[in-house]
Amino acid sequence: MVETQDQRQHLAQSKSIGRCTVSCIFVFLTQLVLSLVPRFFSASSFLTQLALSALLLLLFLGFGGWCRRRLLQVRASAPAFVFFNILFIWGFYVSVIRQAVPLLNDAVFSGEVVFLVIGLYSILTSDPGIVTYGSASSDQPLNSSVSQVDNHDEELELPCHESTEGSGLGTRVRYCRSCKAYIKGLDHHCPAFGNCIGQNNHLLFLILLFGFISTEASYLVCASLFAAKSGILDRPSMEPTLSENLAVSTILFMILQLVWQVVFVIWHIYCVCVNIRTDEWIKWKKYPEFQLLVQPQPGQSFANFRFRNPYDKGILQNVEEFLALRA
C-alpha cells in the first residue's frame, strides 16, 4: 500500500512537472510571437501595433491551446503560465531594460515582482473557506458526495450551521466543481491562481490584482525610459534587433494586460460594494434567494422572474435585461 501511494505521488509530481514545462514553453512562444509585430510592422502607428498584438495574442492562445489539447494531448498549468510570464518579464528587464532605469524605479519594480511571486504562492496554497463536516474542529472536507454532484446539474442541499447575521455569508456556501468542495462565500474558481476565491482569500485576491496592475504600470514606466534612451520608437525605418523587438512587444503586452485587469478590478469593486459574488451573479437562477416572482400585469398571461439581490436591496433587474447583458 505504501508503494502504491509512493507511485501515485511520483506520478502526480511527474504530471505537475510536465504541465509546468509545457507552460514555460508556451510563455516563451507567446512572447516570441508578439515580438513579430514590431519586427514586421515597425512603420505602423503604436495603436495599430497594439491592435495587431491583441489579435495575434488571441489567435495564438486560442489556436495554440487547441493544438496542445487536441493534437499534442498535453495539459498546461495556468498558475505556472502566470509565474513564467512574471519570470520572463523580470528576466528581460534585468538583462535589457534595467540599464536605462534609475535606481528608485529599479527598486520599486523589483520589489513589486517579489511581492507578486510571494502573493501568487500565498493564494495558490490558501484556504478559500472550505466547509467541513460537523463542528469547526473537524478536518474532513464536505466532498464525500462529489460523485452525486457530478451526476446532477443541481447542487446538493447543504445544511448550514454558520451564523446568518450581518452580510449573510453564513448561508452563501457554494459548490465548486473544479475544487470538488463546498466553499464559503465562493466568488469564482480562478484558473490563473489555481484556487477558488472565497471568503477567506477574497481580500488577498483583490490585493494581488492591484499588485499586478501596479507592477505592470511600473514596467511600462521602466520600458518607456529604455525606449526613450535607445530611440527604438523614433527610427522605424531601421531594422530592430530581437531585444528591441521584445522591448516594444512587452510594452504592448503589458498595456493589453492592464486594460482587461483594470476592467476586472472595477467589476470586483462593484461586487464588493453591492455585496454579491461573481458566482451568484452568473448562476442566480440556481439560488432561490436571488429570484423574485413578479405577478402578471393586466394584459400578460404569465408571471415573470426578476433578479433580486437579497444582500443589497437596491439591486433589481429584469430577466430579459440580465440575459441581454450576458449575451
TrEMBL record:
**InterPro entries given for it?**
Palmitoyltrfase_DHHC, PFA4/ZDH16/20/ERF2-like
Give the signal peptide as a residue range, or say none if absent. Answer: none
For membrane topology, the record states: Multi-pass membrane protein
In terms of PROSITE patterns, this protein maps to: DHHC (PS50216)
> EC number(s)?
2.3.1.225
Looking at the record, the residues that make up the Palmitoyltransferase DHHC domain are: 172-285
* MF-aspect GO terms: protein-cysteine S-palmitoyltransferase activity
A Pfam short name: DHHC
Q: Does the record bear Transmembrane in its keywords?
A: yes
Subcellular compartments: Endomembrane system
Describe the family membership recorded for this protein in Swiss-Prot or TrEMBL.
Answer: Belongs to the DHHC palmitoyltransferase family.
Question: What does the record's free text say on domains?
Answer: The DHHC domain is required for palmitoyltransferase activity.
Q: What is this protein called?
A: S-acyltransferase
**Source species of the chain:** Prunus dulcis (Almond)
